[in-house]
Amino acid sequence: MSTTFDVIVIGAGPGGYIAAIRAAQLGFNVACIDEWKNDSGGPAPGGTCTNVGCIPSKALLQSSEHFEHAGKHFAEHGIGVSGLAIDVAKMVARKAAVVKQNNDGILYLFKKNKVSFFHGRGAFAKAVDGGYEIAVSGAANATLTGKHVIVATGSNARALPGVAFDEERVLSNDGALRIAAVPKTLGVIGSGVIGLEMGSVWRRLGAQVTVLEALPTFLGAADEGVAKEALKAFTKQGLKLEFGVQVGEVKVGADGVSVAYTNAKGAAATLQVERLIVSIGRVPNTIGLNPQAVGLQLDERGAIVVDAECRSNLPNVWAVGDVVRGPMLAHKAEEEGVAVAERIAGQHGHVDFNLVPWVIYTSPEIAWVGATEKQLKDSGRAYRAGQFPFLANGRARALGDTTGFVKFLADAQSDEILGVHIVGPYASELIAEACVAMAFKASAEDIARICHAHPSLAESTKEAALAVDKRTLNF
Ligand SMILES: Cc1cc2nc3c(=O)[nH]c(=O)nc-3n(C[C@H](O)[C@H](O)[C@H](O)COP(=O)(O)OP(=O)(O)OC[C@H]3O[C@@H](n4cnc5c(N)ncnc54)[C@H](O)[C@@H]3O)c2cc1C
Predict the structure, then answer these.
(1) Which residue among 23, 120, 361, 431 sits deepest, i.e. has the most Cβ atoms within 10 Å of its Cβ?
(2) What is the dihedral of CA 240, 244, 248, 252, to 10 degrees?
(3) Span from the CA of 6 to the centroid of ligand 1 (angstroms)
(4) Atom 27 in ligand 1: which residue has the minimum CA distance?
(5) Measured distance CA(306)–CA(351) in Å, rounded
(6) Pairing between β-strand 383-389 and β-strand 4-10 as defined by DSSP bridges
(7) 274 CB within 6 A, ligand 1
């Protein structure tokens, strides 16, 4: 196998493997190095997203949603269920099979696109004439030389200071995705996307879940109305959320974890749980990359410093995804990966950071793109808002899921769509229409004039666009 490449990609998460494939499609000789191991020690490309993130979490969300529906909602359809039980081992095995399909799919794509894959850790060795030397150690040991290097080494879960993840009692996203039996009580520190999704999985399966959040408000990045509606729904489902808490000493014992904290009123309290998920954010990962060997610049958070086009401080060294600034989202990493490969080829790869959608796959789902009302108010931009509830949507009624609404924010003069916020069924799918509309700089009226299938949840999108103009077809 050749050891000299046009492009070497370090990391095969969604940022890295997509960059490698796109670069190969553009005619470059490409290597991709990834160290993730499956349970048998074999390669498991796909990164956090495939192995312990997006994909397995969605598999468990699906299983737990089926369980909750069977237990709580089938009866209203006239479907009787007796002896309903959850086989956690089988559920987790199904999740593992879904993950493996994705790992295998990436290996197949590497082969198909002639990307040379190296299973091991990649580290900068030195700058050489016309490129960089990368040492690979692990299952594969090699020294590679690349003209361009794309770093896509992702991120790791942030631990509470002084409380290491043991993945038994104190769980990161990794342990939270493979709990062997439904715990009676589960604590979650942090009410962000990961905490809410993992908390939802185990609550649906029967755990009593308490979420402790340091911030005084819920989902600060989301639109206020959406956050309020979601909080109402989660509370009704039995998820206990406390805000404005300050976590103190965490004691880990043989039968559980006790978390001392001060609540929003300043009173001392203790949460005693069987297991604790800590989801307080993620840290950019450059462990083992040896950036100092070539003088690759990191910021104070440990992220690789890049410009808007993912160029580092070194010529021909690029970085994408969670290891750089910006939202830690798989599709943002993918877009950056494609754009970098195209830039290396002299093309004009482009990522519009304003059009990166955010999705939380809870029930109700939450999704948004563009500005929130608060951001528009703070920036002094004059806007008009239109909102439509799923309660008035025939498809939502037929589904038996009428929680939430679609909200449009459009420029007061030009009517250009500035933000779309959805809380409700299939928000994750509905948001794509808003992304397309905003990419084409559509006005709210454009959406209002487009024929939407009936009955469909997307009719709420059209109605929310109509509501910007204080019109409706539905009442
Ligand atoms: C529980 C959970 C759920 C999530 N759900 C979603 C979701 O629904 N949607 C969404 O958009 N995002 C989601 N995310 C975030 C998403 O997983 C990340 O944003 C995404 O994986 C980042 O991609 P990446 O390519 O930058 O890095 P990663 O996916 O972290 O991949 C980095 C890869 O690099 C490898 N690596 C690191 N260092 C080296 C080295 N020196 N040599 C060789 N290999 C190395 C790692 O082994 C890994 O395979 C979720 C995250 C978690 C934890």
Answers:
(1) 23
(2) 20
(3) 24
(4) 154
(5) 14
(6) unpaired
(7) no
Q: Which of 403, 56, 374 minimizes the C-alpha distance to 234?
A: 403
Q: Which residue in the block uniquely carries the two structure tokens 């083992």?
A: 288
Q: Is the CB of 291 under 6 A from ligand 1?
A: no
Q: Is the minimum distance from the CB of 173 to ligand 1 under 6 angstroms?
A: yes
Name the token pair of 450: 């487009």
Residue nearest to atom 2 of ligand 1 (CA): 53
| 304 secondary structure, DSSP code | B
Average confidence score pLDDT of the chain? 97
Angle, in degrees to the nearest 10, between helices 427-439 and 458-468 = 50
Amino acid found at 228: K
Query: Whole-model pTM above 0.70?
Result: yes
Give, in degrees to the nearest 5, the angle at Cα 72 between 71 and 76. Answer: 115
**Partners of residue 240 on adjacent β-strands:** 210
Sheet strands (E) in 13-130: 30-34, 116-119, 121-128
How many angstroms does the Cα of residue 294 sit away from the middle of ligand 1? 24
Whether the CB of 364 sits within 6 Å of ligand 1? no
Ligand 1 atom at minimum distance from 33 CA: 43
Read off the DSSP letter of residue 115. P
pLDDT at 260: 98
Mean pLDDT by 10 residues, the chain (475 residues): 90 98 98 97 98 98 98 96 97 98 98 98 96 93 97 97 96 96 98 96 98 96 96 96 97 95 97 98 97 98 97 98 98 98 97 97 98 97 98 97 98 98 98 98 98 97 96 80
Q: Which DSSP letter does residue 168 get?
A: S
Measured by CA distance, the residue closest to atom 49 of ligand 1 is: 47
Q: Which helix (H) or strand (E) holds 329?
A: none
CA atoms of 38 and 32, how far apart (whole Å): 17
Share of residues in the chain with pLDDT > 70 (%): 99
The catalytic residue positions are 454
Q: Letter for the amino acid at 241? A: L
Element at 59 (helix H, strand E):
helix 54-68
Measure 472 CA to ligand 1 centroid, in angstroms.
Answer: 43
Distance (Å) of CA 245 to CA 138, 189, 248, 443, 456: 43, 10, 9, 42, 41
Q: Is the shortest distance between the CB of 331 and ligand 1 below 6 Å?
A: yes
Q: How far, rounded to the nearest angstrom, does the alpha carbon of residue 320 sit from its chain's CA centroid?
A: 15
